[in-house]
Design brief:
9 strands; 213 residues; 31% helix; 6-stranded antiparallel sheet; alpha+beta
């Protein structure tokens, strides 16, 4: 028996056709990449806002159990962080609230490349924290700053870890390292605001001392 023959023939792509396909894929990629990058930035911004909302909630739960005082207003001997935070030590303030914070991961901004995330309170260090603490925050003043992104610059020079004392004329600004010259601020009333450079200066008018990780 003779094998069956087929009238069909196989056609390979020509070089021109391959180049056309590659060109089309390149165009599609060029159109999609900016949209994907924008979506990633939006997701990171939302993650930062959620972190600060959880930090604010933890602070309110903690002070509700401690006579309406935040850790910064209670001495170390009584379970607070007063003496240490006055030196710019942010770490102790978050450690004394470890029971109220769901995880140390919320202390790290998704867009912060200078600090690293950790999953363990036992291993928590200042290098894992992206957010400042306002030493002067008080439950009696719900419109005061409580916490927020720590990527500040003064006269264009990024601030260092420790105590940052400000006056009304301090030329403070956001750096571009996180949210492109804007930043997130947690207010003592539980809200979180994204503010520009001018909004930052307005928000800090009544705030003089920040502990920077």
């Amino acid at each position: 028996m003779k094998p069956r023959s087929s009238n069909q023939t196989n056609h390979a792509l020509t070089l021109v056709e391959v180049l056309v396909v590659i060109a089309i894929l390149a165009v599609v990629a060029a159109l999609l990449l900016p949209a994907l990058a924008a979506a990633k930035r939006k997701h990171s911004h939302i993650g930062c806002v959620n972190n600060l909302q959880e930090i604010g909630l933890a602070c309110r739960v903690w002070e509700g159990d401690k006579g309406d005082k935040y850790p910064m207003g209670i001495s170390v001997t009584n379970g607070g962080s007063m003496e240490l935070v006055l030196t710019g030590n942010v770490l102790t303030t978050f450690l004394v609230m470890s029971n109220e914070l769901s995880t140390p991961r919320i202390l790290h901004c998704p867009e912060d490349t200078q600090h690293i995330k950790t999953n363990s309170f036992a291993m928590l260090a200042s290098s894992n924290i992206s957010y400042f603490i306002n030493i002067d925050a008080a439950e009696a003043y719900p419109q005061m700053l409580l916490s927020g992104d720590d990527n500040f610059a003064i006269n264009g020079v990024p601030v260092k870890s420790g105590l940052l004392e400000l006056s009304t004329n301090t030329p403070i600004s956001w750096t571009a390292k996180r949210h492109k010259f804007v930043g997130n601020l947690a207010i003592a009333d539980g809200s979180v605001q994204q503010v520009t450079q001018s909004g930052l200066r307005s928000a800090l008018v009544a705030t003089n001392r920040l502990a920077i990780p």
